[in-house]
Amino acid sequence: MTTDTELTISRLIAAPPSAVWEAWSIPANLEKWWIPAPIACRVDTLDLRPGGGFVTRMREGDGDWQPHIDGCFLEAVPEQRLVFTTVLTEGWQPADPWLAVTAILTFEARDGGTLYSARVLHKNPEDSAKHDEMGFQEGWGTAIGQLAALIER
């Protein structure tokens, strides 16, 4: 489902919610799937609690590390739900991101696996359209595929 300010994506992953949580909550695991390959991901901060920081960097080839996410977690319910935003940084500090989003991620046990769903909220239809045109479905879809490849057995 996609609305004028919201983009969504879901996939059934053949692994339990506990495995999805481990892929999210351990920085070395998150680095393996959070950004579509061959772009590399570095996790600088992953503090899974309300107000905790979420900072990742990305790099193509041997280039310099570039900003990716500078955000803050709003909610963290182990094995069930994560919510982060880019309009705040660690400790609820206001930010002026290049793309303002709030992402609501849910991990629902289903059919012996996990229905992994992401709802990404934007401040206006223009930002949502820009994110969609940048390849939201392909990029987030590839990352979720990488997540599945990491944890499915």
Strand order of the largest sheet: 1-9-8-5-4-3-2
Question: For the record, what is the CATH homologous superfamily label?
Answer: START domain
What's the number of structural domains?
1
Structural class: alpha+beta
Uncertain residue segments: none
Gyration radius from CA atoms, angstroms? 15 Å
Q: If you average the pLDDT, what whole number results?
A: 96
> Termini, distance in Å?
29 Å
Strand content: 35-45%
Biggest beta-sheet profile: 7 strands, antiparallel
Instruction: List the helices and strands in order.
Output: EHHEEEEEEEEHH
CATH architecture: 2-Layer Sandwich
How many strands appear in the DSSP assignment?
9
Please identify the top-level CATH class. Answer: Alpha Beta
Domain Activator of Hsp90 ATPase homologue 1/2-like C-terminal: 14-152
Family: Belongs to the AHA1 family.
Protein name: Polyketide cyclase
Pfam families: AHSA1
Characterization of this structure:
The mean pLDDT is 96. The protein has 4 helices and 9 strands, in the order βααββββββββαα. Helix 1 (17-25) crosses helix 2 (27-33) and helix 2 crosses helix 4 (136-151). The longest helix has 16 residues, at 136-151. The two termini are 29 Å apart. The chain has helices at 17-25, 27-33, 125-133, 136-151, and strands at 6-13, 40-46, 53-59, 66-77, 81-85, 88-89, 93-94, 101-110, 113-122. Strands 1-9-8-5-4-3-2 form a 7-stranded antiparallel sheet. A two-stranded antiparallel ribbon has the order 6-7. Helices cover 27% and strands 41% of the residues. It has a single domain, classed as Alpha-D-Glucose-1,6-Bisphosphate, Chain A, domain 4, CATH 3.30.530.20. With 153 residues, it is of the alpha+beta class. The protein is globular.
